[in-house]
C-alpha cells in the first residue's frame, strides 16, 4: 500500500489518518494503467500496469497493418530516458500471436530492455517461429530495412522464463504472478499478478465457450481488484502484402476454438460439415497454408484436427480416409508431441490410448487417388488455391455437388479462393484456356469473435472484481459492453484509449497481529436459538402455528475484540479478557442494580393455573417462584436465553433473585405500595444488556396490569 | 489393521477435545509436532513421517519397502532346477518335531541358499509404525516421488480414510505406472501359487518365522520382531485406480489450499521427474519439507533451493546425504556478508552428476565388453532417470563401436513410461527444456524407438542366457541373487543413490536462514556443530515425537478499510495507547485472516464502554455528577466495582456516562 510506506514507523498515525479520512479513495491509487496499444482498437496489444509501485507490461504486440512507427507501441511513454530496466518489473506475454509478441525482440534487443520476461512453455517454443516468419516477410519479400534480426529473436527468447499453468512465480519480493489456461491458442494464458494485497488478472485473448474438445478458460475464483479483459472482436484486416496476408491468415487459423469446431463436432453427427459431406459420399478439400516456419504451428492444429477426426471416425465407425498432400507432413512434429499436455483434455486422453500418433485413417495422398471413388478428406497446399496441388485437386472435384471445399477467411485477389468467395460463381476461369464448372459446396471459415460479449460477461461475473478495464476492441462495442458490466453487474468499468492512463483504487487492508485468544473466540460457535414466532412476526401467525413452529438455530460467528495501537509498535488485536493483563490493570466492574416489585397474585393468575389452591405467596418456595417467573418471562420475551438456575434467573448478564431485605438499597419504590402480595426481585446487569434488562423489568412491573 | 495401544490413546485424546474447534484450539499454541515413522532405506524406500501443523495431521510419503520382497523366492518357469531334491523336505515343513527344528536351525549357520527363501505368494512390507495411527485422523498426505506413492492404495482403501492427497502431476502418473507394473508382476505369482484365501499365510505364523534364517527373519520382522505387522497382501488394480481418483494433482509450484488455512506448494527436488519438496504455509509459520534432493540433475528439473529461503522450519528428510571428506571452501562458512552469493557459488562447484555420468559410462563400457564377447547384458532397473540416461549413453557407445545390438525393455508399462517422459518438458532440467524450444526430442529414446533400436515388450516369455547383470541401489545383492545360484555370469553392482553432500547441506541450511531445522539423528555426528549457525537444530529419530513451539505469537489479520472507518478510538489515560473495539466477520481463506465489516453489525453498538479499569476518584465523580439534574440514584463505589441503581433507564445511563468519563474503559 502506497500509504503504508509514507507513514511507516508511526502506526497510530497511520490508523487515524487512514480511517478518519473519508476521502482516502481519492488519493490512494493502487493501479495505473497505460495502454500502449489495443486501447479502443485491435491490432497490437500492450498494456502497462502499475500496481503498488510495481510495473508490469502485459503483451508486447505489433500491428500487422502498419508499416511505419505506428506498428510498435510507443515505448517512450514508459520511460522518457529509455531506462526500461528500472521502470519495468517484468514483461508478461499471453500467447504467441504477432499482435501480442511481435514487438518483443525490438523492445529487448533494440530498445535494450533486459529484465525478466514470462510466458508459457508453448508460447516460448512457438513465438520464435512466428517472429522469424514475420521478420522474413518484412525483409526478404518487402525489402524493408530490418527492425530486428534472427539473432535478435534468438537472444530475446533466451531472456524468456517459461512458466507452467498455475505455477506461482515470485518475480521479486513483492510481485507474484501466475498463469491460467485461456483456451484461445496452444499455450495461451491469462495472467494473475499480485503485489501486497492488490491483485489483478490480465486475460489476453481467451475462449469462454465450453467445448468438448477445447477447454474453455479455466481460472480460480480469485479476489481481484482489477480485471483487464480483451474484447477482441475479429475484424478482417486486408494487408497490402500478400505474404503478410498469408501470415495473418495462418495466425487466425490458429485459433483452434474456431477452426476445429467447424470440422469436428461430435455431439450430433449431423453438425459437422465434414461429416455431412463424407456421409453423402463426397470429397472434402481443405486448402492449407504452407509458409515458412509458422506452418509448424499450423500443422499442430492440423495434427490436432487429425487426432480428433481419426478418433471421431473410429467412434462413428467411419472408414473414410484422411489424406495429406505432399508438402505437408503427417509426421507428428516434435513441438506438438512435447506440448500435448497443453492441448485439450480430450486430445490428452486420446493420446494416452493412441500412443505415438499412429492414426488409423490418416494416409499420404498421391495423384492417382484424385479420381479414386468414395469419400475422403484431403489437406492440400496452398491455402488460397492459387496454384499447386490444391488447384489441381480443385479442378477435378469442383464439378460434383457432393464435394466440399473450405476456404480461409480471406483470399488475395486473383486467386481461385478469392473468386469463389465473391458471389456464387458457377463457372471459373482457371486460366486462359480452362474453364471449370463449380457445383461443389463452398464453405468459408468466417471467424467469430475471439470471445463474445457473453463470454466476457460470464468471466466478469465469475471473478467479480472490483473494477474492469476493457481493451483490444472497437470503441462502440466496448462502450456497450462497458455499460452492461456497470448496470448488470454493478462493477466499475473503463475502456481507455491508447496512451491514456486509468487510475484505480484498490481495496485497502490494514494489518494487525491477532492473539490466539481472539482467533479462538472468533471461531467459537455462537448459537442463537430463535423461536420462529418472534416479536416481529408473531402478530401475523396464530397461536396454533406458533406452537408448532420449530426452533431456529443460527450460528453467526462474530469477531469481537479490541484493537490496540501503541506508538511505533505493530497494531494488535486482543480478546477483551487479555486487555487488562496487557495494560497491567484491574477491572473495575460497573454494574446496574434494580430491586423490582412483582405482584404475586397477578403473577399466579397469569401463569400458574395448575397450582394447588392452598398455595399462597408465603409458603411458595423461592424456587417455584423463580420458576413461575421464568415461564412467564419466556412467553413474553422474544430475545435472550432464559436460564432457570434454581435460586436465581439469568438472561445474558442479567441476573435476578428474590430479595428478602426490608431495606434494599436498590429498591426505588417503598414497601408500602405493595404490602404482602408483592415479592421483590433484586436484579443486576452490566451495560451490555442494558436494553434487555429494562425490558425485563418493565415486563415484571407490568404483570399486574395485564 | 490390528488395534493397538497407540490407537486407543489417540481416540482418547480426541474425545476430550471440543469437536467443533479441534482444528484450532487444541494445538493452536504449538506450531508443529513431528514424528518420524520410518527412516526408509535407499531411494526405493523413502522415509515416512507424520506431522501436526496447526492441528492438521499431515502424512509425508506412503512408501513400501520393496527390498523386503527379496525374502520370497522368485517365480520361475523352471522351478525344479532351482529347488532340487528338497521339495519333499519343504513339504514336511509343517511338522514341528524338535529334532527337525534343530536341524533347520543348524542349517541357518550355513550360508543361505535358495531353499531358505519363502516359497509363497509374496506379501508387501508397509511402514509398520503407520498402522499405529488412525487413518481417519490424517488430514493431508504429501507425496514427493513415485516411490513415495507405491504404498498409497493400502491407505486409500481403508475405511474412514478421507485425507486430501497432494501429488505433482508427473509423480502421480509415474507412480501409477509403477503400481500397475507391481500389480501385473504380482499377477504372475498369483497364477503360480494360486489364491491363498483371506487368512494370514502360512509363512507368517510364528513357528515358520522362527525357522527362517536370521538374515531373512530380520527383514521379515525387523530388529525387535515388531515389523511383522506391516506385511500386507498386495492391493488390486482396482485399488490403484480408486487410489488415483482420490489424488489431487498439482502443477509445478501451484498453490493448493487446504481448508482455507494451509497453503501447500511443490518445488522441484531434482531427484526424479516430478519429484518435489514441499512448502507448507500455515497461520503460525511455514515449513519446508526437503525430501531426497539433488542440486543438478541430468534429466529432472534442478533442486529449487532458493524457494526454501527464509522459512521458519526446514524439515530435512534426506537420510542419504553423503558424507564425503571432500574439502569444502572454508570461506563459504565464515563469509557472512553475502551468504546467498557464496552458497550459489559453492553449490555449483563439485558436480554431483559427474559422478553419475562416470558410473553410467563405466557400466556402458562393461556392457559393450560383454556384448563384444558375444554375451547379453541384463540390467534390472528401478530409477527412471538412470534408465533414460543409460539408453542415451549405451546407444552412443554402441554406435561408436559400430555394434548392431538390439536393446529390449521388458516391462508392462515401459511403452507408456517412455511416451510420458517425452511430453513433460515442464519437469525437466534446463538442458532438456532447451531441446523443446529448438524442436528436438527431449530424450534420445524417442528417436531410438522410432529407429527400432529400442524394442519394448510387456513381458518376457523365453528365458535367456544371462551373462552379465547389473544391480542398482543398496539391495542386499547376496539375497537378491540367491535363487539363481550357482551362477556363472558376471555381476556388476552399482549404486545410484542420489544425495547431497553433507557439507553442502550445512552450507545450504546456513544460507537459507531458517529459524529451526529438524535433522536426522543418524547424521548428527557428521554435522559440524558450530555456533555460527543462526538456527537451532533438533535431531529426530524413528518413532519419537519432536515438538516445535509456536514461532509467532500472533496471527496476522487484515482489517478491511470499511471496518476501520467504524472504529471509535479511545486513548488510554496512561501508556499512551490507542484502543478501539472492533466487531466484524472473520474470514479465513487461503491462509489469510481477514476481518470484514458486516452490515448488520455496523452501528449496533452505542459506543458504550463495556469494560472499565482503574478506580474512580470520588471527588471527580461528584464533580461529574454535579453537572446532572438532581434526581435520586444510588451509586456504590467499591475498590473492585461500582453499582449504579436508578429508578429509570435514562438516569441510570446518565450516571453510567458520568462514571465513564472519569474511568478508563473500552
Notes on the structure:
The complex is a heterodimer of chains A (706) and B (666). By secondary structure, chain A is an alpha/beta fold. Helix content of chain A is 33%, strand content 22%. Chain A is elongated and about 130 Å long. The model of chain A is unreliable at 1-29, 266-271, 533-547 and 608-619 (pLDDT under 50). Chain B is α/β, with parallel strands linked by helices and 666 residues long. Among the domains of chain B are: 352-494, 3-Layer(aba) Sandwich (Rossmann fold), CATH 3.40.50; 556-603, no CATH class; 608-666, no CATH class. In chain B, the strands form 8 sheets. Chain B has a 7-stranded mixed β-sheet. A 7-stranded mixed β-sheet of chain B has the order 9-10-11-12-13-19-20, with no helix packed on it. In chain B, helix 7 (169-193) runs antiparallel to helix 10 (237-245). The longest helix of chain B is centred in the N-terminal third of the chain and has 25 residues, at 169-193. Chain B is elongated and about 120 Å long. Strand 23 (509-514) of chain A pairs antiparallel with strand 22 of chain B, so a sheet runs across the interface.
Amino acid at each position: 500500500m502506497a500509504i503504508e510506506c509514507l507513514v511507516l514507523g508511526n502506526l497510530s498515525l497511520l490508523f487515524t489518518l487512514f480511517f478518519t479520512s473519508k476521502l482516502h479513495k481519492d488519493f490512494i491509487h493502487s493501479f495505473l494503467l497505460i495502454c500502449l496499444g489495443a486501447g479502443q482498437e485491435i491490432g497490437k496489444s500492450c498494456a502497462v500496469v502499475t500496481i503498488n509501485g510495481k510495473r508490469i507490461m502485459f503483451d508486447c504486440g505489433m500491428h500487422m497493418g502498419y508499416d511505419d512507427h505506428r506498428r510498435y507501441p510507443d515505448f517512450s511513454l514508459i520511460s522518457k530516458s529509455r531506462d526500461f530496466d528500472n521502470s519495468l518489473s517484468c514483461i508478461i506475454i499471453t500467447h504467441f500471436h504477432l499482435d501480442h509478441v511481435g514487438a518483443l525482440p525490438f523492445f529487448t534487443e533494440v530498445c535494450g530492455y533486459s529484465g525478466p520476461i514470462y510466458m508459457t512453455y508453448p508460447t516460448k517454443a512457438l513465438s520464435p517461429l512466428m517472429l522469424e516468419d514475420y521478420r522474413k516477410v518484412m525483409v526478404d519479400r518487402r525489402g524493408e530495412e530490418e527492425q530486428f534480426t534472427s539473432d535478435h529473436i534468438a537472444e530475446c527468447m533466451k531472456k524468456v522464463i517459461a512458466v507452467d499453468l498455475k505455477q506461482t512465480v515470485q518475480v521479486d519480493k513483492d510481485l507474484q504472478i501466475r498463469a491460467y489456461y485461456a483456451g484461445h491458442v496452444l499455450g495461451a494464458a491469462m495472467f494473475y499478478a499480485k503485489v501486497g494485497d492488490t491483485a489483478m488478472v490480465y486475460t489476453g485473448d481467451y475462449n469462454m465457450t465450453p467445448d468438448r474438445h477445447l477447454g474453455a478458460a479455466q481460472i480460480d475464483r480469485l479476489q481481484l481488484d482489477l480485471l483487464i479483459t480483451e474484447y477482441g472482436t475479429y475484424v478482417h484486416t486486408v494487408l497490402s502484402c500478400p505474404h503478410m496476408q498469408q501470415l495473418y491468415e495462418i495466425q487466425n487459423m490458429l485459433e483452434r476454438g474456431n477452426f476445429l469446431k467447424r470440422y469436428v463436432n461430435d455431439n450430433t453427427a449431423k453438425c459437422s460439415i465434414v461429416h455431412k459431406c463424407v456421409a453423402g459420399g463426397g470429397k472434402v478439400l481443405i486448402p492449407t497454408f504452407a509458409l515458412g516456419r509458422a506452418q509448424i504451428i499450423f500443422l499442430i492444429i492440423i495434427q490436432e484436427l487429425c487426432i480428433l477426426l481419426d478418433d471421431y471416425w473410429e467412434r462413428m465407425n467411419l472408414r473414410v480416409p484422411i489424406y495429406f498432400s505432399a508438402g505437408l507432413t503427417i509426421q507428428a512434429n516434435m513441438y506438438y508431441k512435447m506440448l500435448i499436455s497443453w492441448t485439450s483434455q480430450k486430445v490428452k486422453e486420446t493420446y494416452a490410448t493412441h500412443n505415438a500418433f499412429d492414426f488409423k485413417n490418416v494416409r499420404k495422398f498421391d495423384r492417382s487417388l484424385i479420381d479414386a471413388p468414395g469419400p475422403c478428406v484431403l489437406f492440400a497446399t496452398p491455402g488460397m488455391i492459387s496454384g499447386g496441388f490444391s488447384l489441381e485437386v480443385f479442378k477435378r472435384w469442383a464439378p460434383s455437388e457432393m464435394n466440399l471445399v473450405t476456404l480461409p477467411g480471406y483470399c488475395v485477389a486473383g486467386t481461385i479462393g478469392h473468386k469463389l468467395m465473391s458471389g456464387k460463381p458457377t463457372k471459373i476461369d482457371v486460366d486462359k484456356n480452362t474453364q471449370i464448372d463449380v457445383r461443389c459446396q463452398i464453405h468459408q471459415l468466417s471467424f467469430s469473435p475471439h470471445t463474445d460479449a457473453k463470454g466476457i460477461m460470464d468471466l466478469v461475473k465469475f471473478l467479480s472484481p472490483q473494477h474492469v478495464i476493457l481493451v483490444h476492441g472497437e470503441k462502440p462495442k466496448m462502450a456497450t459492453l462497458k455499460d452492461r458490466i456497470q448496470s448488470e453487474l454493478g462493477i466499475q468499468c473503463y475502456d481507455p484509449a491508447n496512451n491514456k492512463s486509468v487510475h484505480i483504487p484498490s481495496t485497502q487492508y490494514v494489518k494487525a497481529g491477532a492473539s490466539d485468544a481472539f482467533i479462538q473466540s472468533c471461531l467459537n460457535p455462537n448459537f442463537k436459538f430463535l423461536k420462529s414466532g418472534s416479536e416481529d412476526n408473531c402478530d401475523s401467525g396464530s397461536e396454533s402455528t406458533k406452537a408448532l413452529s420449530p426452533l431456529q438455530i443460527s450460528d453467526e460467528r462474530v469477531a469481537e475484540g479490541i484493537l490496540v495501537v501503541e506508538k511505533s509498535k505493530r497494531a494488535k488485536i486482543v480478546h477483551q479478557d487479555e486487555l487488562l493483563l496487557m495494560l497491567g490493570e484491574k477491572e473495575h466492574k460497573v454494574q446496574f442494580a434494580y430491586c423490582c416489585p412483582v405482584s404475586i397474585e397477578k403473577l399466579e393468575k397469569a401463569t400458574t393455573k395448575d397450582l394447588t389452591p392452598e398455595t399462597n405467596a408465603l409458603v411458595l418456595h423461592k424456587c417455584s417462584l423463580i420458576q413461575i417467573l421464568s415461564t412467564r418471562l419466556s412467553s413474553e420475551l422474544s430475545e435472550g436465553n432464559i436460564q432457570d438456575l434454581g435460586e436465581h434467573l439469568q438472561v445474558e448478564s442479567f441476573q435476578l433473585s428474590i430479595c428478602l431485605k426490608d431495606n434494599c438499597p436498590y429498591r426505588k419504590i417503598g414497601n408500602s405500595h405493595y404490602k404482602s402480595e408483592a415479592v421483590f426481585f433484586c436484579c443486576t446487569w452490566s451495560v451490555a444488556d442494558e436494553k434487555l434488562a429494562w425490558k425485563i423489568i418493565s415486563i415484571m412491573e407490568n404483570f399486574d396490569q395485564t | 489393521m490390528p488395534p493397538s495401544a497407540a490407537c486407543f490413546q489417540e481416540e482418547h485424546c480426541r474425545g476430550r477435545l471440543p469437536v467443533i474447534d479441534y482444528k484450532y484450539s487444541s494445538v493452536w499454541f504449538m506450531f508443529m509436532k513431528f514424528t518420524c515413522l520410518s527412516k526408509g532405506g535407499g531411494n526405493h524406500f523413502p522415509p515416512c513421517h507424520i506431522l501436526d501443523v496447526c492441528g492438521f495431521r499431515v502424512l509425508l510419503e506412503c512408501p513400501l519397502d520393496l527390498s523386503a520382497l527379496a525374502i520370497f523366492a522368485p517365480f520361475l518357469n523352471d522351478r525344479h532346477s532351482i529347488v532340487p531334491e528338497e521339495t519333499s523336505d519343504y513339504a514336511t515343513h509343517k511338522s514341528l518335531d524338535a529334532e527337525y527344528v534343530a536341524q533347520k536351525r543348524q542349517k541357518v549357520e550355513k550360508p543361505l541358499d535358495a531353499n531358505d527363501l519363502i516359497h509363497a505368494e509374496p506379501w508387501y512390507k508397509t511402514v509398520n509404525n503407520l498402522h499405529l495411527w488412525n487413518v481417519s485422523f490424517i488430514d493431508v498426505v504429501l507425496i514427493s516421488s513415485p516411490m513415495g506413492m507405491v504404498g498409497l492404495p493400502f491407505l486409500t482403501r481403508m475405511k474412514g480414510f478421507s485425507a486430501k492427497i497432494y501429488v505433482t502431476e508427473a509423480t502421480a502418473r509415474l507412480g501409477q505406472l509403477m503400481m500397475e507394473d507391481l500389480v501385473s508382476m504380482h499377477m504372475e505369482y498369483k497364477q503360480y501359487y494360486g489364491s491363498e484365501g483371506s487368512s494370514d499365510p502360512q509363512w507368517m505364523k510364528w513357528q515358520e518365522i522362527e525357522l527362517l534364517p536370521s538374515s531373512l527373519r530380520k527383514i521379515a520382522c525387523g530388529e525387535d520382531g515388531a515389523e511383522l505387522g506391516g506385511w500386507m497382501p498386495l492391493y488390486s488394480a482396482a485399488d490403484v485406480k480408486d487410489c488415483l481418483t482420490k489424488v489431487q494433482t498439482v502443477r509445478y509450484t501451484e498453490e493448493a489450499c487446504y481448508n482455507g488455512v494451509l497453503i501447500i506448494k511443490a518445488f522441484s527436488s531434482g531427484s526424479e521427474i516430478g519429484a518435489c519438496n514441499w512448502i507448507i504455509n500455515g497461520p503460525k509459520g511455514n515449513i519446508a519439507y526437503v525430501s531426497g534432493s539433488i542440486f543438478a540433475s541430468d534429466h529432472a528439473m534442478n533442486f529449487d533451493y532458493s524457494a526454501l529461503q527464509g522459512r521458519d522450519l526446514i524439515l530435512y528428510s534426506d537420510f542419504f546425504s553423503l558424507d564425503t571428506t571432500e574439502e569444502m571452501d572454508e570461506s563459504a562458512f565464515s563469509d557472512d556478508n553475502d551468504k546467498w552469493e557464496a552458497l550459489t557459488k559453492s553449490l555449483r562447484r563439485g558436480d554431483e552428476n559427474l559422478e553419475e555420468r562416470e558410473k553410467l559410462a563405466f557400466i556402458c563400457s562393461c556392457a559393450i565388453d560383454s556384448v563384444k564377447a558375444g554375451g547379453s547384458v541384463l540390467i534390472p532397473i528401478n530409477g527412471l532417470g538412470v534408465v533414460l540416461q543409460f539408453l542415451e549413453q549405451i546407444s552412443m557407445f554402441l554406435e561408436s563401436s559400430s555394434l548392431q545390438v538390439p536393446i529390449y525393455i521388458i516391462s508392462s508399462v515401459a511403452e507408456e513410461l517412455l511416451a510420458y517422459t517425452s511430453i513433460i518438458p515442464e519437469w525437466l532440467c534446463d538442458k532438456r527444456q532447451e531441446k523443446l524450444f529448438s524442436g528436438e526430442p527431449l530424450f534420445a529414446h524417442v528417436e531410438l524407438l522410432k529407429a527400432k533400436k529400442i524394442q519394448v515388450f510387456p513381458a518376457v516369455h523365453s528365458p535367456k542366457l544371462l551373462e552379465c547383470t547389473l544391480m542398482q541401489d543398496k539391495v542386499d545383492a547376496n539375497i537378491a541373487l540367491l535363487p539363481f545360484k550357482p551362477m556363472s555370469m558376471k555381476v556388476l553392482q552399482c549404486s545410484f543413490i542420489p544425495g547431497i553432500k553433507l557439507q553442502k547441506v550445512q552450507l545450504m541450511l546456513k544460507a537459507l536462514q531458517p529459524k529451526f531445522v529438524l535433522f536426522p539423528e543418524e547424521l548428527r555426528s557428521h554435522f559440524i556443530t558450530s555456533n555460527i549457525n543462526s538456527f537451532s537444530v533438533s535431531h529426530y529419530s524413528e518413532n519419537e515425537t519432536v515438538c516445535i513451539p509456536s514461532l509467532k505469537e500472533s496471527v496476522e489479520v487484515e482489517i478491511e478499510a470499511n471496518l476501520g472507518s467504524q472504529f471509535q478510538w479511545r486513548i488510554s489515560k496512561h501508556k499512551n495507547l490507542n484502543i478501539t473495539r472492533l466487531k466484524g466477520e472473520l474470514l479465513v481463506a487461503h491462509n489469510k485472516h481477514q476481518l470484514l465489516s458486516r452490515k448488520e453489525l455496523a452501528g449496533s453498538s452505542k459506543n458504550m464502554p463495556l469494560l472499565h479499569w482503574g478506580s474512580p476518584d470520588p471527588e471527580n465523580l461528584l464533580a461529574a455528577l454535579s453537572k446532572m439534574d438532581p434526581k435520586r440514584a444510588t451509586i456504590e463505589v467499591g475498590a473492585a466495582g461500582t453499582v449504579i441503581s436508578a429508578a429509570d433507564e435514562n438516569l441510570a445511563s446518565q450516571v453510567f456516562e458520568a462514571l465513564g468519563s472519569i474511568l478508563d474503559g473500552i
